[in-house]
């Protein structure tokens, strides 16, 4: 007979296993992506470099699970603001990576690319991460 991990237990396990790791994550903007969808790594991404840009720490609520055992972390809304300076960049999307850039967790294309070229211009993203179905152990 298999041990049946309950919904409450799954949520607690996610919190304990991933909670400290979440503090190590960074949300970044990208201007290009290479590689094959689903198999990309940090080396396949081109991070934004506009004046005033810096990747931001991931922050959000603990894991939430629906009745179908789908898990997600709801990220806070982050704003990236362009500083003064020359140059234009087209931002294609955002992603989440570990602080040491060793693991690219995922990326999300923006609905429409954003051209950023004016001081004070902002790009806002809400970094929600959907972990998908967490089935019981077998």
Write up this protein.
The protein has one domain (7-131). The chain is built from one helix and ten strands, in the order H-E-E-E-E-E-E-E-E-E-E. It is elongated, with a radius of gyration of 17 Å. It has 138 residues and is mainly β. The strands form three sheets. Strands 1, 2, 3, 7 and 8 form a five-stranded antiparallel beta sheet that branches. It has a three-stranded antiparallel beta sheet with strand order 4-5-10. A two-stranded antiparallel ribbon has the order 6-9. The mean pLDDT is 84. A hairpin with a 4-residue loop joins strand 4 (60-65) and strand 5. It has one helix at residues 7-22, and strands at residues 25-33, 45-47, 56-57, 60-65, 70-75, 77-81, 89-98, 104-116, 122-126, 129-133. The N and C termini lie close together (9 Å).
Q: Poorly predicted ranges (pLDDT <50, ≥5 residues)?
A: none
How many discrete structural domains? 1
Encode the helix/strand succession as letters. HEEEEEEEEEE
* Alpha plus pi helix count: 1
What is the CA-CA span between the terminal residues? Answer: 9 Å
Task: Provide the helix percentage.
Answer: 10-25%
Oligomer kind:
single chain
Biggest beta sheet attributes: 5 strands, antiparallel
Class derived from helix and strand content: mainly beta
Beta-strand portion reads over 45%
Shape assignment: elongated
Alpha carbon gyration radius: 17 Å
The strand count comes to: 10
